[in-house]
Amino acid sequence: MKFQPMASHFIDGKYVESAGGEEIDVFYPATGEIIARLHAATPAVVEQALQSAMNAQKGWGAMTGTERGRVLRRAADILRARNYELSELETHDTGKPIQETLVADVSAGADALEYFGGLAGSLTGEYIPLSNGDFAFTTPEPLGVCVGIGAWNYPIQIACSKAAPALACGNTMIFKPSETTPLSALKLAEALMEAGAPSGVFNVVQGYGDVGAALVLDQRVAKVSLTGSVPTGRKVYAAAAQGMKHVTMELGGKSPLIVFDDADLEKSVSGAILGNFFSSGQVCSNGTRVFVQRGIKTAFLERLFSRLASAKIGDPMDPDVNFGPLISGRQVEIVKAYIAKGLAEGARLVYGGSQLDGPGFYLQPTVFTDVTDEMTIALEEIFGPVMSVLEFETEEEVVVRANATEFGLAAGVFTKDLVRAHRVAKDFEAGTCYINTYNVSPVEAPFGGSKLSGVGRENSKLALHHYTEMKTVYVSMNELRAPY
Ligand SMILES: NC(=O)c1ccc[n+]([C@@H]2O[C@H](COP(=O)([O-])OP(=O)(O)OC[C@H]3O[C@@H](n4cnc5c(N)ncnc54)[C@H](O)[C@@H]3O)[C@@H](O)[C@H]2O)c1
């Protein structure tokens, strides 16, 4: 098997196997063939990872930020130098077209390592003058051992988005990738080691939800950062609360994308395509509720259909292919059930909707019109290539409807009226908003959700606050009196 790693886990600077652990078969979504076979961590392997991360933390935390940053920046260079090889791996693990993974996965991970590596040396506290010459000062302290748990849609990017700020701040990390896409995090561990990270600073353990749960509950873990679905987020948040642990929750969404009559037609169609069909629709921040104002609806749909007709669906390793399979047969069944529900509830299927014949987990890009706010396909996260088009008339109406969701991950607006664009963005109840663009998430800007979509932010300087705890030291320069 071409993508079989040396062993399932990476702990204390080396590959570790757990032959007795439950089997994890890794499939290439384009063919369904098994490309690697791993084993879930046993309790002994989880313990080994915890010990290693605990032992490494003191030394790593005692290094200067500049020294830690140098390691992260070297790791970024290593990932970039191996971009093709790692993108090929990511394409086989996820089924995403190589033209996507070459530009949006490994390189985004490298960006995170570079960015947080650059910031590591700038972590400082403040001096606070108090009365009569007394003062206090603060120092941002590492939290200790952090656990990262990943989803399957952006495996290496998620691993880097968690590891880079955690390590920059002097923490160590145990990362558990999704059982569906376990391969590339091991390559990140290799790159960090080669870049000079001491053994135990970044460990990878494989497993299903029970392995994640064991890590979250362990008393030695100070923080948990999860990327996953809302139901898993609820469980992980509740378990972390028992130990009063810090959490970051990057969860699901059902984001609105509003297209006003005056929008640039080509741009808004591009936004809707990027916000619904990139990664075959398996993107958390997708704008799957596309609200189109009545006056532009016919032109918008005509242009959308003609551009969708030019999508090249096929072998993700073909550099011309821009629409690949879904992650698994199970995911195809989930999405097909939503398509059936859309039809049963009266939505009009106007594009796609079918599974492709042959091997692999392919589903056509799918568009529904005549969707109303209370339909299941307008309320629930589908996590597949299904766009719902809803019609609206006024700005006041559409903002209320856009916000009428339990999620709050992202939201977008397309219009040439910039005053209106800013007004609408101000009113959006979402963590990440877009004006005349969609689904960009550069490392420099905060990314994350409100409401059920999450807690905390990844990317940007804000992420450093989620991996440090401020210590305050009061210093008296005067005599100290007590009442008795
Ligand atoms: N907000 C974001 O940044 C973001 C990014 C990507 C994906 N997502 C979301 O992720 C979801 C898709 O990914 P998924 O299907 O892998 O999600 P999932 O919730 O099924 O699994 C996520 C991870 O949690 C682990 N897990 C499951 N049960 C656990 C438990 N009890 N304790 C600890 N860990 C446990 C899984 O093994 C996996 O590694 C979608 O809802 C999507 O919106 C969010």
Short précis:
With 484 residues, the chain is α/β, with parallel strands linked by helices.
Description:
The relative contact order is 0.14. Helix 2 runs antiparallel to helix 5 and helix 2 (65-81) packs across helix 7. The protein is of the alpha/beta class. The protein is built from 16 helices and 22 strands. It has helices at 43-62, 65-81, 83-94, 98-104, 106-120, 155-168, 184-194, 209-217, 230-242, 265-274, 297-308, 329-344, 376-379, 395-403, 418-427, 462-465, and strands at 9-11, 14-16, 23-27, 34-39, 127-129, 135-142, 145-149, 172-176, 202-204, 221-227, 246-250, 256-259, 289-293, 348-351, 366-369, 386-392, 407-408, 410-414, 432-435, 450-451, 454-455, 468-475. The strands form six sheets. A seven-stranded mixed beta sheet has the order 14-15-16-13-12-18-19, sandwiched between helices. A six-stranded mixed beta sheet has the order 9-8-7-10-11-21, sandwiched between helices. The mean pLDDT is 98. The structure holds nicotinamide-adenine-dinucleotide. The site of nicotinamide-adenine-dinucleotide has 30 residues, from helix 8 and helix 9.
